[in-house]
Amino acid sequence: MSTLPTCTTLLLDAHGGVLHVTLNRPQSHNAMSLAMVSELRAVFAAVREQPQVRALVLSGAGGHFCAGADLSDMAQAHHAGPAACQALNRAFGTLLQEAEQLPQTLISLLQGVVLGGGLGLACVSDITIAAENATFGLPETSLGLLPAQIAPFVVKRIGLSHTRRLALTAARFDGHEALRLGLVHFTEADPQALAERLDEVLGQVLRCAPGANARTKALLLASSELALGPLLDQAAAWFADAATGAEGREGTQAFMQKRPPNWSPAR
């Protein structure tokens, strides 16, 4: 794996084609500081062109995922004026865009508090695994603020009706409710079960061809933006590239020869 950026707010651990990224500000329940936003963006930029990184796992240190925005950064921006507040807020939206568009599979492991920006990160993840007793919420309006950058991604994830209720009440809810809403894909009762589910999901992801996964993810994201005709035209072109490319040839040969393909850890 190529060199990753040096980080002070993140712990990075790469092995077996998986990069584990741990939000590491446990004293603040991993509140999202501007430094953490910048470091996450740098990590995402570093791995975009590294096909050997097959998946990223995002988690939090100290038993919590993320408590949302760092209020000390917000206070400094407030003193600097509206332009500084706007720039600070928009930086997090850019992070969410870049996270959502990663070619790798992004998996979030959610424990403790998953609030505000933490909930936003969950909404741009491809696969989310949560503790049953995790606490989710959009607390911004209870602070006199707006979930400005998070809202579009939450709407895309769980729909407008549910997002309106959650944002306009600042209601807290647990992993069971997050599963019911479609915010998360799995809930588990304890850390051991979380770890086992993560291993299972990673095993499934790593059985898929990395290039095919990246193109499939791009196609799925485009499905909410492109008209149907152009979308299907693009899908056909990408399918032809895959079918005639190295992964398509290897996958077909592996199937015929009854063996795992060369990208599979089962080889």
- The CATH superfamily name of the largest domain is 2-enoyl-CoA Hydratase, Chain A, domain 1
Assigned CATH class of the largest domain? Alpha Beta
Question: Major beta sheet, specifics?
Answer: 6 strands, mixed
* N-to-C span: 20 Å
Largest sheet strand order: 1-2-3-4-6-9
| Distinct helical segment count | 11
Total E-strand runs: 9
In the CATH hierarchy, the third-tier topology of the largest domain is known as 2-enoyl-CoA Hydratase, Chain A, domain 1
Poorly predicted regions: none
Order of helices and strands: EEHEHHEEHEEHHEHEHHHH
Structural class: alpha/beta
Strand and helix layout:
Elements: E1 10-15, E2 18-23, H1 34-47, E3 55-60, H2 71-80, H3 82-100, E4 105-110, E5 113-115, H4 117-123, E6 127-131, E7 135-137, H5 151-158, H6 160-169, E8 172-173, H7 175-181, E9 186-188, H8 191-206, H9 210-222, H10 228-244, H11 246-256
Parallel strand pairs: 2-3, 3-4, 4-6, 5-7, 6-9
Antiparallel strand pairs: 1-2, 7-8
Helix pairs in contact: 1-3, 2-3, 5-6, 9-10
Task: Give a verbal description of the structure.
This protein is α/β, with parallel strands linked by helices and 267 residues long. It has two domains: 10-206, 2-enoyl-CoA Hydratase, Chain A, domain 1; 210-256. The protein is 49% helix and 15% strand. It contains eleven helices and nine strands. The chain has helices at 34-47, 71-80, 82-100, 117-123, 151-158, 160-169, 175-181, 191-206, 210-222, 228-244, 246-256; strands at 10-15, 18-23, 55-60, 105-110, 113-115, 127-131, 135-137, 172-173, 186-188. It has a six-stranded mixed beta sheet, sandwiched between helices. Helix 1 links the parallel strand 2 (18-23) and strand 3. Helix 9 runs antiparallel to helix 10. It starts with 9 loop residues before the first strand and ends in an 11-residue tail after the last helix. 35% of the residues are buried. The mean pLDDT is 95.
